[in-house]
UniProtKB/TrEMBL annotation:
Residues 290-368 form the Secretion system C-terminal sorting domain. This is T9SS type A sorting domain-containing protein. It holds the Pfam family Por_Secre_tail. InterPro entries: Secre_tail, WD40/YVTN_repeat-like_dom_sf. Transmembrane segments: none annotated.
Length: 369
């Protein structure tokens, strides 16, 4: 919450269950339990996560206990917690549906949370999972229709109130109606399935980790982003073993990672130039013109408007998310208001052109016949 105040949910070790919420107000030197002995009681109770919308209002999701999800809210900064009545919650599908540690995403006063659904608690017996949603800071909840994902929802990442993604392994699903329904998302590029998060205030979602079911080399791991709700993933980097990711603003984001033999790595900070400028600029988008498109030769002409400056970056991404062209526009090109994009050495197919400026990004699909 600040340099001094933070909240954490913790749970019992092994199969003992239980859990609690702790708070520090001195930068982490001393932690005080804020839930009571009757909240998240073992062995059924289990505190999956805690989230604060502002300094006073927070919510914590627990597994079902006494027939309903054990969800608590606070309006006094965590000093006390009140359980949400069963009447304000969707009924668990059965005794095998419960919460999942860290599987949530919040935008404004709305929060989404994935569930786990395993027959008898066994990962070898997955059942259809759902995504829960509250639009009033946790006071009332609804549940999505059954999603295509089996077993559990690893993470939810919403880019706005309507559009977002969720995944389990390399299986990705998308919503365009705020999470009421979810459909399987077919995608190109390297979607990385260790963790995923939205970049606040943008349409960007970032993924980190392995882009294959089981990584066999450093070439299989890295980070990527999407700006079209998961249809296309573009590499940020490859070969860095990112395991977790979070963004607190448009320009501030971090990943947790493995260190190398010399102890280097561990934490990475995102470069603002990688992500913040990927926001589409509507005026720039309208002014972008590429011809001929489709191109039989792989050579395209790019028409520029007067607002484009020297040093503007042009890059092209293939259907697998790999960068195949990267060039900067010089003063001569800017003066003529035309540029040539030569992809004559590339194979026939669909590519994405990105024009990056100080004011944002414009994109255009390119087709080589």
């Amino acid at each position: 919450m600040s340099a001094t105040t933070a909240h954490v949910a913790q749970f019992g070790i092994g199969t003992s269950g239980g859990g609690e919420i702790l708070r520090t107000t001195d930068g982490g030197n001393v932690w005080t339990k804020t839930t009571t002995a009757s909240q998240f009681v073992a062995p059924v109770g289990f505190a999956n996560w805690v989230y604060f919308f502002d300094a006073n209002n927070g919510v914590s999701l627990g597994d079902p206990r006494n027939g309903s999800f054990e969800i608590y809210t606070t309006s006094n900064g965590g000093t006390s917690w009140t359980r949400v009545p069963a009447a304000n919650l969707p009924t668990p599908l059965d005794a095998d549906e419960y919460g999942l540690v860290g599987s949530y995403c919040a935008i404004g006063n709305t929060i989404w949370a994935g569930t786990t659904h395993l027959l008898g608690g066994s990962a070898s017996n997955p059942l259809p999972a759902r995504i829960l949603k509250s639009t009033d800071r946790g006071l009332t909840w609804t549940a999505s229709a059954i999603t295509p994902l089996q077993g559990f929802i690893s993470k939810v990442a919403m880019s706005d109130a309507n559009n977002g993604l969720a995944f389990r392994g390399t299986d990705l699903i998308a919503t365009t109606d705020g999470g009421a329904t979810w459909q399987t998302r077919t995608y190109t590029g390297n979607f990385c399935h260790y963790d995923m998060t939205n970049v606040p205030g943008t349409n960007i979602i970032v993924s980190v980790g392995s882009s294959v079911p089981t990584a066999s080399s450093f070439a299989d791991i890295g980070s990527s982003y999407t700006i079209d709700n998961g249809a296309t993933w573009i590499d940020i980097d490859r070969g860095n073993y990112h395991t977790t990711v979070d963004f607190v603003s448009r320009t501030v984001g971090y990943t947790g990672s493995l260190t190398d033999a010399d102890g280097a790595g561990g934490v990475y900070k995102a470069s603002p130039n990688i992500l913040v400028l990927n926001n589409r600029n509507p005026e720039l988008q309208k002014a972008l013109s590429v011809y001929p498109n489709p191109s039989a030769t792989g050579v395209f002409s790019l028409k520029l408007n007067s607002g484009i400056k020297a040093g503007t970056n042009v890059r092209v991404i293939d259907a697998l998310g790999r960068q195949v062209l990267n060039q900067q526009l010089n003063a001569t090109t800017i003066a003529s208001q035309t540029a040539t994009v030569d992809m004559s050495k590339e194979k026939a197919g669909v590519y994405t052109l990105e024009l990056r400026t100080d004011n944002g990004v414009a994109q255009q699909k390119l087709v080589i016949q």
